[in-house]
Here is the input.
Amino acid sequence: MGRDLEPKENYDFVQLSRAYLKDWRQLSIRHPLAAGVLMYLVENMGRTTNAVICSYKTFQEVTGYSRPSIARAIKVLKEENWVDTVKVGSATAYCVNERVAWQAARNQRKYAIFSATVIASENEQEDGYNEKARQSLQYIPVIKTGEQAIVSSEDLPPPDQRDLTE
Here is the structure.
């Protein structure tokens, strides 16, 4: 009786096709690093595109393997159609095969519209990144309903109490 029949968002789980589980198990035996990279992508993929933008350096940090090892693992994943790649400038988006794993309802999946989860390693950022991250960004005021912007280059007097209480 108290059951909520409204559709729930699928934020906390990923769905896997049973048809690919045996192949995934075989991948983990033949190419453990490739299976680990695939699992990392599935853990972090976007809700509707199954896409993740991630650098080789980040893959290296996460797995502890060298760049050539990561490249071989990604090559296996591409050759065996576990993932596809899309170039986005100098970055690469890794798109997990949506027949294997997905998060959104099947009728909501899209391929490359293009939103993706972007994973940026702290070690890849410019010098002073941590210091800059603690600084406040420029404030851009938002005009709310009923408010009016004053666009002028002339100096205006400060408001008095009557302006504030009206």
In short: The helical segments are 18-30, 32-44, 56-63, 67-79, 129-134, 161-165. The chain has a mean pLDDT of 79. Residues 56 and 67 are 6 Å apart (CA to CA).
